[in-house]
Here is the input.
Amino acid sequence: MSLTLCRAGLCPRNLRSDTGVLKRLASVLFVLASVSALDAVAATMRLTPTVVLDVQGFGYPMASASLFIPYGWQAEGGVNWGEAHACTNGYGTNWSAGTPDGRHGIAILPHQGWEWSQSGSMKPGCQMLQIGNAEQYLQAVIGHTLPNARITSIQRRLDLEKIDAQHAGVQDNGFQRIETSVSSAQAFVDYEHEGTPLRGSFVVSVLMTYIRTGSAGDFGPPIESWSGYASPMFASFGPAAEYNAKAYEGIRKSYLINPAWQQQISQHNRKLGQIAAQGAQDRARIWAQANAQISQIINDTWRNQQQSADYRARETLEAIRDVETYSDSSAPGGQVELSNMYDQAWKLEDGTYVLTSDPSFNPYQSFGVDGQQLSAAGR
Here is the structure.
């Protein structure tokens, strides 16, 4: 992990000297490329639960999220707080996991914010960037941090957009118009590191808000501004010949925000919104209120993705996210969500999980550990 971008042939080109969106991701992406992803996955995958820790934000260590990673992988990083994340209320997730030999890996990269307007950035720490959707965001990040990589495809993720579709719309009271749009995409890339062909992907959702205040008349033209928010980005890398997109997607879908941490973050965001609102006047006050609304949308989006009040809502969400809820008495709440891309789910006596499509699977024969097959909840 001590290697630099240039040693990997990935020297960034003309990055800005400030701590903006693109520059802050550069070191993260290289560490990911050099630390980890999956071997070509057969019909069976053994998983272990892990958490993403926040040790800085609230005075004591707290799990911000949980997910499943392949058995034997090593994880590092967590939620970081500081001025580098000023545009996103002071915090961002920078976490990775991978095989001990450094051949394969995943990462959760920090969420990012940016703005552009007629008069300049209106929120401290935000870059002025004209990025309007998830595809443009992926192209910008990859182009500035992995310039030697070739983007083989960018695919629109309608499944992720469907989750957040309720937040897209228009509000117009005659004086102010607010347009909100949601886009999600996945980019696949190929490149080389020390002569080894590598493949990877990035998955992200972007929330864009356009605000127009006033109208043409005696007081001049209306004031227009745009703001963008990119969700924490899921990235994965590995040798091209062994890269398994299906397995990585299953890992991504296991990522769940801890409701207790989300509650703390929501309080933090509301407090910042109140401070901004108290100190703002006229146009700045209107913008602060819009920011508070955007923050609430972001928080609601996470909660809507991870929680469901009743069986029918849970079934709908499972279909969208391609996960299945299984009964597991030892898991929090007595249930666990796992990828539905496999025919069976097992809980082993050592606490790990196995997903398999092998009808003759026997946990002891495969791993030397007994286990129990899990049943789908509510069936």
